[in-house]
Amino acid sequence: MADINLKYDGAIRAIEDMQAASTKIDGQLEDLQQQLAPFAQQFVGQAAHSYQQFQGQVNQLEAQMRASLAQGSQVLSEMIEGHQKSDAAAANQF
User: Which run of H or of E encompasses 48?
Assistant: First the structure.
C-alpha cells in the first residue's frame, strides 16, 4: 500500500486558492461581458446570431470550469476530512 502524506495547511491553501481563482475569473469574465455588451448590441443578422451562439458556448464552458473548480475543492476537502478521521481512529488504537 502506498504511503499518503497530506499536509493539511497546504491542502487547505489549495482549496482557498481554487475558490479565489474561480471568484477572480468569474469577475473578470463578467467585466469583459459588460465591456463587450455595447459593441455586441450593434450586431445584426447573422453576426448577432453567431455572437449569441458563441456567447452560449462561452457561458457553458464557464459553467463547466466553475463546476470543475468546485469539484476539485470538494474532493480535496473530503480527502482532508477522511485523512483526519483515519488519523484519529489510528491514534485511538493506542
Answer: helix 45-91
- Report the pLDDT value the prediction gives residue 84, as an integer from 0 to 100: 86
Mean pLDDT, residues 24-40: 94
Q: How many domains does the chain have?
A: 1
Structural domain including 72 reads: 1-92
In this structure, the number of other CB atoms found within 10 A of the CB of residue 13 comes to 11
CA atoms within 13 Å, Cβ hemisphere of 3: 2
Mean pLDDT across 55-62: 95
Q: For 1-12, how does the pLDDT look when each residue is reduced to its tens digit (9 = 90+)?
A: 566 677 888 889
Residue from 23, 15, 14, 17 nearest 62 by CA: 23
The number of angstroms, rounded, from the C-alpha of 3 to the middle of its chain's C-alpha atoms is: 28
